[in-house]
Specification:
Largest sheet: 7 strands, mixed
Number of helices: 10
Oligomer: single chain
Radius of gyration: 23 Å
Shape: elongated
Order of helices and strands: EEEHEHHEHHEHEEEHHEHEEEEEH
Low-confidence stretches: 1-5
C-alpha cells in the first residue's frame, strides 16, 4: 500500500523491499501524539537532517496487547486515522505501518531491528523515547541493541522525557487524567484538547422537549477512550464551523435512563445536524451527572451550564 495522507507518505512494511537512502528511524504507537512524542519527532527531523538521513516513523496498526491477549480492550487516545493526521500535523513526512500479528509479537528487539529496520529500511540510527521499548518479552534482548548497532553500523539515541509540574508526560498518565475528569491536565500533556469524533444519530429527543436540543454522537471506534462521565464544556467543529457546546456524557437518571449516551448541545445554533459528523474537543468538566427532582429543576441547571460553557469556550478563542 502507498498513498498520501495530507502531505505524508504512508507505506506498509510488507510492501517495502529496501530503501536505498540511509534512514533514521523511531518506533512506537504514538497514541495521542502528546508533548513527549512531539519532542521526539522534532529531534528526529533535526538529527536526521544533520546526519543527511531520511527520517522515518514506524508505528503499528493495532495495540500489541490486542494480539497477545484476545480479551484486552485498549482505551486509545486516538484512532488510527487520527494518529496519522496528528503525525502529519507535526511535520512527519514518512510513516511505515507494521501490521502487528503473532509473528511480529514473537520477534525479539534485535531480530526486529536487524530483519525489519536494517534489512528493509536501511536504518543508520535508531531514535527512542526515554521509556520506549519493543520486542518480545519472552526473548528480551532490548538491552543488546547498542551491541547490535556496533555490529551492523547503526547507533541508538535516546531523548529525555518531557515533564509538566514534575510529572513525566506519557499516554498512560493522560488516560488516567481523562478517566479522573482532569481535562485541563490532559490538555496540557497532549498539547491540544482531547477530542472525539462521530456522526450525529437519532436519540430519544429528550433535550428538545427541555428547550436544549441535543445531537446524539455515535462513537464508532469501541477502542476510543471516553472521559469520566459528567457534564462538559466543549468546542464543537461541524462543517468547518466552530461552536461553543456543552455535553452530557453518561446516563440520564432524571428520566430513568441508565444507558450511556454522548449528547451535545450547540450554543447559539439553529439548524439540522443529523447525518453530519462532529468533532468534540473537551475543554472542562463542569459537574457530575445529577438525578434532579423534576424536569424543571434540570432545565434551570442546564441554563447555568450553558452560561458556564459559553464563558469557558470564549476563554479558549
Amino acid at each position: 500500500m502507498y498513498f498520501l495522507f495530507s502531505m505524508m507518505e504512508l507505506h506498509n512494511i510488507e510492501d517495502i523491499n529496501f530503501i536505498e537512502r540511509p534512514t533514521m528511524v523511531t518506533v512506537g504507537m504514538f497514541d495521542g501524539v502528546h508533548l513527549g512524542h512531539r519532542q521526539l519527532l522534532r529531534h528526529l527531523a533535526q538529527q536526521a537532517s544533520a546526519l543527511a538521513l531520511q527520517p522515518i516513523v514506524v508505528t503499528f496498526d493495532r495495540h500489541p496487547r490486542q494480539v497477545l491477549d484476545k480479551n484486552y480492550v485498549p482505551r486509545m487516545l486516538c484512532t488510527f486515522d487520527e494518529r496519522l493526521e496528528l503525525l502529519s500535523q507535526c511535520g512527519v513526512q514518512h510513516v511505515v505501518v507494521a501490521s502487528f500479528d503473532r509473528a511480529m509479537a514473537s520477534m525479539s528487539a534485535c531480530s526486529f531491528a536487524r530483519d525489519v529496520l536494517c534489512n528493509k529500511l536501511n536504518m543508520n540510527a535508531l531514535l527512542l523515547g526515554y521509556d520506549n521499548v519493543f520486542g518480545s518479552r519472552l526473548y528480551n534482548d532490548f538491552a543488546q541493541l547498542p551491541d547490535l548497532g556496533n555490529e551492523l553500523g547503526f547507533k541508538v539515541v535516546r531523548v529525555q522525557a518531557v515533564s509538566l509540574d514534575g510529572v513525566e508526560v506519557s499516554s498512560t498518565k493522560i488516560r488516567h487524567c481523562l478517566m479522573d475528569g482532569d481535562i485541563e491536565k490532559a490538555t496540557a500533556m497532549l498539547g491540544s484538547p482531547y477530542s472525539i469524533e462521530g456522526p450525529v444519530v437519532h436519540g430519544r429527543h429528550v433535550g428538545t422537549g427541555l428547550g436544549f436540543p441535543t445531537a446524539n454522537i455515535h462513537v464508532a471506534d469501541p477502542n476510543k477512550l471516553l472521559p469520566k462521565q459528567g457534564v462538559y464544556a466543549l468546542r464543537a467543529i461541524c462543517n468547518g464551523q466552530l461552536y461553543a457546546a456543552m455535553a452530557n456524557l453518561g446516563a440520564q437518571p432524571t428520566f430513568h435512563q441508565n444507558q450511556i449516551v454522548f449528547e451535545v448541545h450547540l450554543l447559539d445554533f439553529n439548524g439540522e445536524l443529523y447525518g453530519n459528523t462532529m468533532q468534540l474537543c473537551f475543554l472542562h468538566r463542569m459537574r457530575d451527572i445529577v438525578n434532579f427532582p423534576s424536569p424543571e429543576a434540570l432545565i434551570e441547571q442546564l441554563g447555568k451550564d450553558a452560561a458556564e460553557a459559553k464563558l469557558i469556550y470564549s476563554k479558549t478563542l
